[in-house]
Amino acid sequence: MKFLLLTWCFLALTSTAFAQELYVNTEPASNMARHSLGIRLENQGYFNPGFRNRNTLELMYGASRNWMVHTSAYVSDFYQQKQHLEGFSAYAKYRFLSVDSVQKHFRGAAFIKVSTINNPIINQEIALEGDRSGLQSGLVFTQLLHKLALSGSVSYLRGLDNQYNPIPVGFAKDAVAYSLSSGYLLFPKNYTNYKQTNVNLYLELLGKTNPGYRQSYLDAAPAVQFIFNSVFRVDFSYRTPLYNGMTCNSKNMYLVRLEYNFFNLF
Amino acid sequence: MKTFKILLALLAISTQFAKAQFVKADLQVSGLTCSMCSKATEKSLRTLTFVSDVKPDLNRNLFVITFKKDTQVNLDAISKKVTDAGFAVNKLTASFNFDNLKINNNYHFNYAGNVYHFLNVKDETLNGVMPVTVIDKGFVPTSTYKKYAAQTTYSCYKSGMMDGQKVYHVTI
User: Fold this and answer.
1) What whole-number distance in Å separates Cα of residue B148 and Cα of residue B167?
2) How many CB atoms lie within 10 A of CB B49?
3) Is A86 part of the contact surface with chain B (CB cutoff 8 Å)?
4) In A113-196, where does DSSP find H-type helix?
5) Are the CB atoms for A84 and A52 separated by under 8 Å?
6) What phi and psi, each to the nearest 5 degrees, are found at residue B3?
7) What is the CATH number of the domain that holds B34?
8) Residues in Cβ contact with A220 at an 8 Å cutoff, skipping those fewer than 6 apart
9) In which band, very low, low, confident or very high, does the pLDDT at B18 lie, cut at 50, 70 and 90?
10) Cα-only R_g, chain A
11) CA B116/CA B168 separation, integer angstroms
């Protein structure tokens, strides 16, 4: 992990290309172009104890200059022996700040997420991505700083009873989530056309804490991303704890995601 | 009397009509984060009926837009496509083919239904293909617009209209 961090710092300091903010584990403050539709298929899982995985279908739409919406469906065997439909979530993001110049910008956005899930509640973590019903709202700011794209977010989560499964006594109902993400464009060094494959590297820190319960964790999630033909995106990420004091699905999770974009639909 | 003055002004403007021809526009867009954003912007620009081709320069976030012959070009529509998509125009230079056009500060010429108003220029004669930079709101960063707005005394710079006609402010 230390090696990864050092490599990252070295890359950040010596890079001569642009930064990149299409983060794998978080959303930036920037939106998709208006009337663009993104379709994501994601597989996330762990091998210890035993192999289990979750498949997510996500639709993303640039509704207007400042509004973007997502909706997701979750299927996994995290809580049952067989894959089953766990539930849905919806997400909306409003960009309220844009200080743009040609290859530098600062943006701010507010977001809200809601989920309804039918799994039993076993983990202390309030995660709306297939595990828990609840609400989440927060702020995200993204800055292209020299050659580094930095993004930070903080949000409040309210866990609600899952479908058929109320929150057990003694479980936290509130949580605070925060993230710090950085991105770096490795290739192409020089853009000539849309067909060039982009290779982007990311390092993200993802944390959550349940106030009053002394439960918290901080994960590091390095990722590599390929963008083909400026429309098809493939992400690989691995999430591992820097420290962990909260029960969640697993301490180490992989993520593979395919995303296809349609521009200017209407 | 007022009508007569307007007529006289229109006549003076229309005499310059044949002395310039629109060739292309170089559009630089800010706020693009990746080639996917550029592609979306290009697709959006191509939906404009007067656009014949868009060539991107991805390193500089620049789009070279060429226009269909004998169609009216609407620069505002270009700016609107960019801002609606979620980005901003950083710079737009319109290239005209000039035929010995003598200009000075505050000079106006009419082209394809729009008035072009020169600001911050010296007395000179324009000949051949020359780019002029549009400095109106929606074509420059907000800070640049504010700078020009503070300098100029022309109310048409803020309103974008002169005698009921759309006016673009340009400089060299």
Assistant:
1) 15
2) 9
3) no
4) none
5) no
6) -60, -40
7) 3.30.70.100
8) A1, A4, A5, A203, A204, A205, A206, A239, A240, A241, A242
9) very low
10) 18
11) 5
Q: List, for residues A3-20, the tens digit of each pLDDT value.
A: 555 554 444 443 334 568
| Contact with chain B for residue A121, Cβ under 8 A | no
Tokens of B154: 């022309």
Domain count, chain B: 1
A232-266 tens-digit pLDDT? 999 999 999 999 989 888 789 999 999 999 988 87
Identify the band that residue A146 occupies on the pLDDT scale cut at 50, 70 and 90: low
Q: How many CA atoms lie within 13 A of B82 on its CB side?
A: 24
Measured at the alpha carbon of residue A209, what is the angle toward residues A206 and A214, in degrees to the nearest 5?
140
Is the pLDDT reported for residue A60 higher than 90? yes
* Amino acid making up residue A250: S
Which chain B residues touch A260 with a CB distance below 8 Å? none
What ipTM does the predicted assembly reach?
A: 0.78
Burial of A32 (0-12, 13-18, 19+ CB in 10 A): buried
| Average pLDDT over every residue of B156-170 | 82
CA distance A261 to B170: 37
Would you state the structure tokens that stand for residue A196, as one six-digit string?
A: 């060039």
Would you tell me which residues 26-45 of chain B have a C-beta closer than 8 angstroms to some C-beta of chain A? 28-31, 33-41, 43-44
Q: How far is B81 from chain A (nearest CA, A)?
A: 10
In degrees rounded to 5, what are phi and psi of residue B13?
A: -65, -45
| Residue appearing with tokens 């300098």 | B151
Contact residues, chain B, for A231 at CB < 8 Å: 36, 39
Mean pLDDT calculated for residue range A53-71 = 95
pLDDT digits (tens, 9 = 90+) for A83-138: 999 999 999 999 999 887 776 789 999 999 999 999 999 999 999 999 999 999 99
Q: What is the pLDDT of residues A84-95, one digit of tens each?
A: 999 999 999 999
Domain that holds residue B146: 2-171
User: Could you write out the DSSP letters of every residue in B37-102?
Assistant: HHHHHHHHHHTSTTEEEEEEETTTTEEEEEE-TT----HHHHHHHHHHHT-EEEEEEEEEEEEEEE
Which amino acid does the sequence have at B117?
H
For B46-85, the pLDDT digits (tens) are 999 989 999 998 888 899 999 887 788 888 999 999 988 8
